Automatic annotation (TrEMBL):
The lineage of its organism: Bacteria, Bacillati, Actinomycetota, Rubrobacteria, Rubrobacterales. Residues 23-90 form the HTH gntR-type domain. It comes from the Bacteria. SMART domains: FCD, HTH_GNTR. PANTHER family: GNTR FAMILY REGULATORY PROTEIN (PTHR43537:SF45), TRANSCRIPTIONAL REGULATOR, GNTR FAMILY (PTHR43537). Signal peptide: none annotated. It comes from Rubrobacter radiotolerans (Arthrobacter radiotolerans). This is GntR family transcriptional regulator. Keywords: DNA-binding, Plasmid, Transcription, Transcription regulation.
Amino acid sequence: MVKGARASGDGRSRGRLGRLEQGSLSERAYGAIRSSIISGRFAPGERLVEEALAEDLGVSRAPVREAFRKLADERLVEERPRHGTYVREFTAKDFVDIYNLLSAIESLAVRLIVREKAPLEPLRRIVDRMAEAAREGDLPRVVEIELEFHRSLCSAADNEHLDNVFRLLSGLVGMALSLDDATYEDVKDIAAEHYPLLEAIEEAAKTGEEERAVFAIRSHIRASLGEVMRRLGGDPSDVLYPLVYPEGTD
């Protein structure tokens, strides 16, 4: 299996996290480190040093240690005996498995959105914020907002259990999005791709064509995979095509 690119440097993890406010320190440490992993601020294969992160966050090492445990449960980090804690590396198969699962989950979500004619304006506002972050060249922020878009798409389906399934996977989905988005030459293209997706779902909701919405979301998920899969030594065709091509769709 082909590993993703490793981070260079001594892995001291310094200077990328701000100090925490009062509250549950372990939860806040978990949230801060998790966000930095998902957004790509900490790279796959990078060593996370407990002492350095605790100093950055202004906490003792215990909350960071607890955060590492939760992140390991989510499969976002790997704890290597006698070597430390490292951000998970992605293989081509990891990427394929996550995107195929995301495609299945969001296919159901858009079916329910079309059937119930759920409002999509909140999703449009999220894409507008993504476009603003892209204009500023803030790739980590774009990744965070893109993950919010996919999470909100599932929430819009108004199915509690579907929403919970996405939340369980959201960390790995976010890491996959970060790796994918890093291959774009122009970060503004990431946001731009979401407007046609919304328009396709809106049109499907007007006509009741669930399959057209499914085709749109699955095509969107698969569209940008070529470069990142090549970097990981995989084949983009391993990510499933839409199963149904609506009449009149090229």
